[in-house]
Amino acid sequence: MKPTSFLWKPLSKLPTANAVKLAYDLHLPTRTVNPNLNIRSHEPIIFLHGVFGSKSNYRHQCQTIANVTHTPVYALDLRNHGDSEHALPVDYNTYSNDVLKFMQDHNLKKANIVGFSLGAKISLLSLLKYPELFRSGIILDNAPVKNPKAGLFLQAFLKSVVNLLNKAKIPSHDKNWRELGHQAIQKYVKDPVGVQYLLKNLRNTDPAENITDYEEGYCHFNVPVRLFESDFIEQITTWPEEIAQGKQYLGPVKVIKAKKSNFIVEDGLKAYSEHFPNYEISEVNCGHLVFDNRSQECVRLICDFIKTQRYKSLQSHLRNTAGLSAAEIQVKHDQMDLNIKTFNKEVAAGDHVVSA
Hints:
By secondary structure, the chain is of the alpha/beta class. It contains twelve helices and nine strands. Helices cover 41% and strands 12% of the residues.
């Protein structure tokens, strides 16, 4: 594929990897209304950020969710973002396989997966591909459909970062580097919230080992935007219908829709009904960056949903085990664990992984 004029380095500079090791932050509960409660580590929360973001974008929100739900939150850096490895390809199936590998490496099962934007679609595909591994899904402003209209929003983000790196070329020692970065980004992104979102991943320090797009003496961005193929935005706005076709996730799904965004439209709602029949939706009065515009409201919706589903799960468990002895209940638990272990072995053998 031909590169566009704003690409800086040849595509060959980015390696290819079917799976990469994802960097993460683990947010453990530090406060709770009941200090005697045990951390439900067997039902953790996995948080996936949006495109051009990282696990550092929402540290405060993730910690609050951990505290309120008394549940560990694993905030991941997706490939080519934050502190994770830079590698091709960048399709949704590969992103989803990275998440699966992380769950296997950390022995996570029955997770509640939370995803925003890019992370939302990765979460949706993961729920469809590996339903046995998830307790619930919480999706922030995206849908399981191709949506080229959203590309205009994302293209502005991409152009702003490329402009920052190629034209602004901010010296890393300049004491006003953040202000200069702000000025460069806002040439394409007029929303102050969007500018701040991108600025969180601009660095004036020496690059970490994973950084592949860097010029010595200048500020760099944590995402190798100048090394991507010209259809990067198209890949982000598409949806792997060939993989999702015929699949359903029957567990509970919470959708948080931004009222002033075009990421969830009529065909997206239809797709939710088709693939996620037990979904519910709440609307917040803001644009696409819901976690930045309506942080407290989104955190409350997420925590309320997780606690409600936990209560329903407990009630179901009590009904299913009524009249059983302790030994019989243990047999049920052991069988559930065996089913998950068998599934993981099949995935490792390639029986459940669809090639990218």
